[in-house]
Amino acid sequence: MCRQGHVCGAVVGGLMAIGLAKGRCTNAEPPKAAMEAGTALQRRFQAAFGAINCRDLTGCDLSTPEGQERFKATNQHEKCTPYVEWAARTVVELA
């Protein structure tokens, strides 16, 4: 997310999809189903990959030019594809 190294974009996208699928219909309703599914997604991702933050997953600080170069030089984008695939499959299961 904007090269800050925080939560992996695959998880963020999954959380948005869960919110669309299970979010509240009115402001009076608590989004219990979305919260439970979103929490499950994050916990499962952490268990599957050992981290949830981009910086921890890639080992690169993308907020710096050096980190961006390291990301490119070590083909980290190839590492990201399984995260996205996993998140998409898991969201379908949870939603």
Descriptive report:
This protein has 95 residues and is mostly helical. The protein has five helices and no strands. It has helices spanning 9-22, 32-49, 54-58, 65-73, 76-94. α1 (9-22) runs antiparallel to α2.
Write the layout of secondary structure elements.
Blueprint: H1 9-22, H2 32-49, H3 54-58, H4 65-73, H5 76-94
Quick overview of this protein structure:
The protein has 95 residues and is mostly helical. The protein has helices at 9-22, 32-49, 54-58, 65-73, 76-94.
Q: What is the radius of gyration computed over CA atoms, rounded to a whole number of angstroms?
A: 15 Å
How much of the residues is beta strand, in percent? Answer: under 5%
- In total, the number of strands is 0
Q: Unreliable runs, pLDDT <50, ≥5 residues?
A: none
Structural class of the helices, strands and pairings? mainly alpha
Overall pLDDT, averaged?
91
Note the run of SSEs as H and E.
Answer: HHHHH
The dominant shape is elongated
Tell me the distance between the termini: 23 Å
Percent of residues in helices comes to 55-70%
Q: Number of helical runs?
A: 5
Largest sheet: none
